[in-house]
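Hello,

Our lab assistant flagged a job as stuck in the queue for most of the afternoon. It eventually completed. Since we weren't sure the result was trustworthy after the delay, we are filing this so someone can double-check. Below is the sequence as submitted and the structure that was eventually returned. Let us know if re-running is recommended.
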Amino acid sequence: MGKSSTDNVNAIVRTVINISVNILVLAVMLMLIYTYAGKGYEFGKAIFTEEGMTDEENAKEVVVTIPKNSSSGDIADIIKKAGLVKDKNVFLVQLLLSEDKDKIEEGTYTLTTADTPAVIIEKLAKTGLKEEETQ
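-- returned structure --
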């Protein structure tokens, strides 16, 4: 009888350990889902609602140069380094989703810190606004 009670205790211990491990794995998965769902939501929200870096009153002009054969990633780097957007990756997605993504040409452009990403993309896509053509 001693052996079967030991077997019963071992089975109960294994069951408790299995349940505990399952609960722990579930808790970690829920925590990861909650964390990354929140980050995904914020990223998506930024793509469609991002504003300019400053308001119109405090806007500063910034001159950027887009070199020949620049990729979308290169353009996003240039715009971020110029202080025109908060997040390079958000701007990159906005650019890739834009109808004007293939219309951006090399050149020097004058933008402002009040420009929204959509306005920046629009200005970069309109060759008539390039500084070198207006001088």
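-- support follow-up --
The delay was a queue issue, not a problem with the job. The result is valid. Helices lie at 2-49, 72-81, 88-97, 117-125, 131-134. Residues 128-135 have pLDDT under 50 and may be disordered.
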